[in-house]
Amino acid sequence: MLTKPQRVYHWDRPGSSISSDRLSDEDRPHLTRALDVYRSMTGERLGHVRDRARAALAGLRPDRGEAVVQILDDAAVYDWPRGGHAATRRLRVFERAARDHPLLDGDAALGHLSEVYGEAPAEHGERVALLYADYPEFHQLQAFPEDYRVEDLRADYDLAQAQALLYSSVRVTVEAREGLGHVVRYARLAHLLHRITRAPDGGYRFVFDGPNSVLRHTHAYGVSFARFLAALVQAQDWSFKAEITLRKGWRPLLFTLTPANGLRSRVPAPLLFDSTLESSLAERFGAERDGWTLRREAAVLEAGDALLVPDFVFTHADGTEVAFEIVGYWTPEYLAEKFSKLGRVRAVDLLVAVPKARALATGALPHAVLPFKTRILLRDLLPRLEAFRKR
Q1: Are 259 and 236 contacting, i.e. CB atoms less than 8 angstroms apart?
Q2: Of 163, 167, 343, 354, which is least surrounded by CB within 10 A?
Q3: Between 62-75 and 46-56, two packed helices, what is the crossing angle to 10 degrees?
C-alpha cells in the first residue's frame, strides 16, 4: 500500500467532500514505459530500477510518479540477504578497520573487505553495494510478473489511492444488500470494530468506528480500513461512506464510493477463520462430534435495533441449534457495548465464550457463558451444548 506522502486526492471544500485520484487513458503510455523498465532490469539494484522508472514517468503528472513506482515495487520480487548475516559481516569489516584507524591505505581496506566477504569489487559503488546489500536501495530485482499489464497497474493505483485516503478516516458506514458473510468476514479479518443494523432498504448497515474516536491511534487502524476496502470492492450492491479528517480539528470531509466507481481488487479469497482461536476450535471439533456439526457465520441474530452474526452455529442431529459467539480481547468500551448487544438477543439458544479475565463483566447476561483461558476446550464446550438439548 501507499504511504501518506504518496497519496493524491481532490478536495471540494464548498461541498465538504473529497475523492481519491484516478489515472486516465492519457496516462497509459507513461505506465507502459515504466512497466517495460521493471520487465527489462532483472538483476539490477532497486535504486537503479526506481531511478529508471522515474525517468520513464517524467511525462506523468509529478505528484503521481512516486505512487506508481511504489505500486510497481510491490508487484516486483526482490532478493536480499536474510537473517541478519549482512549486518554481522559489515560490523566485522568496521571492527577490523577500526584497529588500523586512521585507515589510509586503500589496499589494506580492500584486504579487510576480502577477509570477511571473500571478495573485493574493483568499483567503489560495488563495494558499497556489497557492504549494504541488506539495505532496500541495494536489493536486487529478481522477477516481475509477466501477466501484470497496464490495466492492472492502473487498477492498483486507483485502489491504492482510495485506500491511502482512509488512513485519515474516523468513521466508515457501509450498506450492503447482499454478500453479508463476505463483508462480515473481511471486517473481522481486518480487526475492525463494527456494528450491524438493518438498512432502510432491507439490506444491512455496517458502522465502523475509526481510530480517532475509539483507539486514539490513527494510522494502524486506518490501514485496517484500507485492507477492508480492498475486499469490499469485490462484493456487489454496496455503498461506502467515510468521514475523512485531514488534520486534527478540521471538519470531516465525506468520501463516498459505490461499485459504479469501478475500483478493482486482486485480493485473494477470504480466509475461513479470522483468528487462531476459532481455527483451532474448528480443527479440533472436526466435521461431526457426538451428533453435533459446526457451521461458520451461519445466522443473523436480532439484538434490539442491532444485528449480530455469531462466529459459529452448532446443529445437532435432533434439530437443536445453538449460536456460539466468542468474545475476544478488545477495549473496555467495546466490550461493554458487546455485552449489552448480547443481552438484547432474545428467543435464541446462545452460548457466549468469554476470557476468564472478562467473565465477571458479563454481569446478568441472559445466556450461557463459557469462560476460557487461552483456548476453548472441547471438554468444556460439549457439556454446555448438551445442556441445550435437555431443555
Answers
A1: yes
A2: 343
A3: 140
* CA distance to 188, 281, 305, 349, per residue, from 197 (Å): 16, 28, 6, 21
CA angle 11, 2, 140 (to 5 degrees): 150
Q: Give the domains, in start order, of the chain with CATH numbers.
A: 85-138 (no CATH), 154-261 (no CATH), 276-389 (3.40.1350)
153: closest CA among 86, 65, 58? 65
pLDDT tens, position by position, 94-135: 998 898 888 878 888 889 899 999 988 889 889 999 999 999
Which residues does residue 176 pair with via DSSP β-bridges, in sequence order?
204, 238
Give per-residue pLDDT as tens, 17-64: 999 999 999 999 999 999 999 999 999 999 999 999 999 999 999 999
By percentage, how much of the chain surpasses pLDDT 70? 93
Lookup: cell for 32: 507502459
Tell me the three cell numbers of residue 279: 481455527
pTM of the model: 0.76
Q: What angle do CA 6, 10, 12 make, to 5 degrees?
A: 150
For 69, 130, 194, 200, 213, the CA distances from 296, given in Å and listed in that order, are 40, 51, 18, 27, 31
